[in-house]
């Protein structure tokens, strides 16, 4: 909704001051907003979005695995209450960096918003050369991945393995790092989150995380 306020200058020349109510726009259909006044279109500018990105890792000692959850919520910056923007077309690029001690992707565990996805439906798994160890995982969000009631939210879940054998070193602990990047290719949009799961030989774990915003 755009309100028109009459404004008079010192020369008594009438002017119009446009006050735009951003909460009245349908942000899911376009990234630019245009209004028409007396048959002429006026572009209000590009809608600026942002993303809240989180990641957690939970150790499952019984099943020798770590369950990872990544949550991304895209929204219009500067609008209250928060208005979602579609996250369709954004790519999650995950770096479990697996190896002999584990942190390798477990087939069949990847879901987005509760829907199972695999290589036949767009999930890409890159392994280290001459090994089966997971290096990078890619997934680009599609329209049918999203809940129509909130097209700005994507919750990804998957699991990686943990090898409790082998050397834990003198400290008796082993670190399982995991990085997630959210990217919109062809733009400068990029978000990053790091999460570590530190596993002790007896199965206890601790977490350390930090976030950098680019």
- Report low-confidence residues grouped into runs of 5 or more: 1-10, 209-214
**Strand coverage percent:** over 45%
Query: What's the SSE pattern?
Result: EEEEEEEEEEEEEEEE
Tally of extended strands? 16
Report the C-alpha radius of gyration, rounded: 23 Å
Shape: elongated
Determine the number of helices (DSSP H or I, runs of at least 4 residues).
Answer: 0
Helix content: under 10%
Largest sheet: 6 strands, antiparallel
Overall pLDDT, averaged? 83
Instruction: For the record, give the distance between the C-alpha atoms at the N and C termini, rounded to a whole number.
Output: 32 Å
Structural class: mainly beta
Task: Explain how this protein is built.
With 214 residues, the protein is an all-beta fold. The protein contains no helices and 16 strands. The protein has strands at residues 2-8, 14-20, 32-37, 40-46, 49-60, 65-76, 91-95, 102-105, 111-112, 115-116, 124-127, 134-140, 153-162, 173-183, 190-200, 205-213. The strands form 4 sheets. Strands 5, 6, 8, 9, 10 and 13 form a 6-stranded antiparallel beta sheet that branches. A 6-stranded antiparallel beta sheet has the order 11-12-7-14-15-16, with no helix packed on it. Strand 15 and strand 16 (205-213) form a beta hairpin. It is elongated and about 75 Å long. Residues 1-10 and 209-214 have low confidence and may be disordered.
Which features characterize this protein?
214 residues; mainly beta; 6-stranded antiparallel sheet; elongated; disordered C terminus
């Amino acid at each position: 909704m755009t309100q028109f306020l009459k404004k008079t200058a010192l020369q008594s020349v009438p002017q119009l001051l446009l006050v735009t109510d951003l909460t009245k726009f349908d942000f899911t259909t376009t990234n630019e907003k245009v209004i028409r006044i007396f048959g002429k279109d006026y572009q209000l500018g590009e809608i600026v979005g942002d993303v809240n990105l989180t990641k957690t890792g939970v150790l499952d000692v019984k099943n020798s695995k770590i369950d990872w959850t990544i949550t991304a919520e895209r929204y219009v910056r500067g609008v209250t209450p928060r208005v979602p923007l579609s996250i369709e077309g954004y790519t999650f690029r995950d770096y479990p960096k697996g190896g002999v001690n584990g942190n390798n992707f477990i087939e069949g565990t990847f879901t987005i918003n509760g829907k199972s996805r695999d290589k036949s439906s767009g999930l890409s798994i890159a392994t280290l050369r001459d090994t089966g160890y997971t290096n990078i995982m890619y997934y680009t969000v599609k329209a049918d991945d999203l809940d129509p009631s909130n097209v700005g939210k994507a919750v990804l879940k998957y699991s990686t393995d943990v090898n409790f054998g082998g050397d834990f070193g003198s400290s008796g602990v082993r670190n399982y790092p995991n990085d997630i990047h959210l990217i919109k290719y062809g733009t400068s949009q990029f978000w990053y989150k790091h999460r570590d799961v530190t596993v002790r030989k007896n199965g206890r774990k601790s977490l350390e995380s930090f976030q950098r915003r680019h």
